[in-house]
Structures
1.
Amino acid sequence: MDIQKMVEEIIKRLKKEYPEPRTALNFSNPFELLVATILSAQTTDTHVNKVTENLFKKYKSVKDYTNVSIETLQKDISSINFYKTKAKNIHDSAKMIVEKFNSKVPKTMDELTSLPGVARKTANIILFNAYGMNEGVAVDTHVRRMAYRLGLTKNEDPVKIEKDLMAITPKEEWGNLSHLLILYGRKICQAKKPQHSRCILFDICPSRNI
Ligand code: SF4
């Protein structure tokens, strides 16, 4: 099977499992999604959702995050890994959005990645989940592992993996592909114990014997 056909088949099969692949992070507007995505690095979505439940009650608008000190924000999110850096990034991103983008989370890759703590992965998640835009493929640890196991890339660097995936996937599926691989990577194609015998990609996966 050629590689484009392989991606199409993977998407087709995984969409049967997950008809509407989206982030598991809770949010009700683009800035909340930005906050949740920054918090989610090296942390489970479940834990982030627990923390943001209170955080989003306390801070209603982008401006609210600029009206408190970084130390206060640090206390609010102190149960999260790397909370000091994350609090600073959220605070400084909010400030920049208020001052430079008229209090609205920008809709372009260049503008988004100019915000503190926002690289391509976070920007892709926001563009797809908050604005329905396919600008790239968000590559997290699950996408990275599954893309490699499925033979869709030979690279290990997320930026190169993203380029490989964009080259072989129809643009309208970029956001879906990322979330499908994340959902399936969490449930079946896990890092330590991939569940080959339960896998719906078994017959087409080059790593079924690992
Ligand atoms: S066959 Fe195994 S390695 Fe391949 S996608 Fe399925 S669980 Fe992952």
Note: The chain has two domains: 3-22+136-204, 30-131.
2.
Amino acid sequence: MVAKNLPTVPSGDPGALAKAANGAIQRINRPEITDPARVNPIVLLYCPDGALSLDEKGIAISYKLCKGCGICAKESEGIAMVPEYTGPKGVF
Ligand code: SF4
């Protein structure tokens, strides 16, 4: 796995890119950990908004900070992007 042109540290203002002017989260898809055993811990360093952390259970995702860019799912197995909303109004 080779990272190209990716930030190696979170941004200085975690979550700033996830919020719109009205405070709503701007995210079409969100990451979900589908197989914790296959998640590469180095992916913590790739998240540009500092939404990933490591605790005693493994990798944790803060959905308050995540903007849904998909870098983590691209760079690590065991993480998949899923639609933010699926329901009677459609998938978005
Ligand atoms: S999709 Fe992944 S890399 Fe992007 S902000 Fe969310 S947790 Fe971070």
Note: The domain at 30-79 is CATH 3.30.70 (Alpha-Beta Plaits).
